Amino acid sequence: MALIKAFKGLRYGENAGALKELCCPPYDIISESERQELLKKNPHNIIRLELPTSYKDGEEAQGTAAYEEAGRVIKQWVDTGILADDKEENIYVYEFSFEHEGKISAVKGFVALVKLEEFSKGIVLPHEETLSKAKTDRFNLMTATGCNFSQIYSLFSDKENKVLAVCEKATTGKPASEFTDGDNVTHRLWKISDSSVIAQIAELMSAKQVFIADGHHRYETALNYCKSVGDKANQPDNTVEFVPMMLVSMENPGLTVFPTHRIVRDLSTYDYQSVITKSGEYFDITEGLGKDAALSGLSDVYDKGKSGFVLYEKSGYTLMVLKDKGVMKAILPDAHESLRNLDVSILHSLVLERVFGIDKENMAAQKNLTYMKLAEDAIQAVDNGQANCCFLLNSTRVSEIRDVSLAGGKMPQKSTYFYPKLTTGLVMNRIFKG
User: Fold this and answer.
1) pTM, whole model, 2 decimals?
2) Dihedral of CA 33/70/188/177: which sign?
3) Measured between alpha carbons, how far is 227 from 189 in angstroms, rounded to an integer?
4) Closest Cα to residue 417, out of 20, 113, 23, 28?
């Protein structure tokens, strides 16, 4: 099903500096102070293109100028050899290794171009809703630069490990690129240029569906961009009908998914007791817990295959465990069981909407809701008075992502956080190389 092909990746030249000073995390998790710090270390850091100067100011005119600046800079960097296209078409094997819960884990996959397909075809499958503002931003940047600066993180089923076996056999030597970032994650990249090996990988992938793990906005943007270019798509050597993906077997034991916690803020009225009373219709509630007991209880909920979360506000921690998953069938009658049973669906439908009165439009606009990766940050937001309360969640399982995608469902925004994030700047794709 999935059509993949090799490409001439755009990579940093030797005169650009050290890779650890040139690559960066995804743009949407970088603060303005972090952006400035990256540029201080090396003015050629890819953040200059991914999150161009003055973009954070938020004004439309300044945003337009920032996109234009990114377009000017990428041309200058290509002209001066800061960035250069590889001379051969490659599939790039990408591995990142990291420490998690006291042990070293690694994820290895490969980067290739994947043919853009509408979700309705069932070849590339999403699992999350997207936000229009982010797609507009990425479309404007793609239009100005004609480049994909990062890959879409995607999964495929490979229970017999055939695809990775081919990749590993072809990459036994020294990697073409390697560095360790500030979070102590080591990134390695190998190149496969042998056409017979590339053909073998493409053949194995041709029978597979691809599940987007991280990068829904960029995929939908690439689809929209492809439709927008018109006659320009007829230029030779363009890749407008494809998008670069990092493809990883969903059976990979190193795959790590963090939860994304929710903080509730800026409510006109907030009454803890009222929340607990209303929630008691659906949940078994244990109040007055300390932090350790609450998080231990949340972990136990996960291990038993139940659904629940922890509510934290200044008076303490409260464990909420769903009494009966059957209630969700009445709440979301048209949704597939796999989507109804997700912790995030239960939290959003039964608590945020019904108890707090925060509707889907409000959630999408993040008016009274903010998403946070770290539980400590969510807790601190409450302690600092920046939030009325927060909800701490368990991780979404990879199998749940697969099941929701296959059923044609979409999880609420920010339902998953794959860790580590792919680094940006290791290998890129110029859509039009003229």
Assistant:
1) 0.87
2) negative
3) 32
4) 28
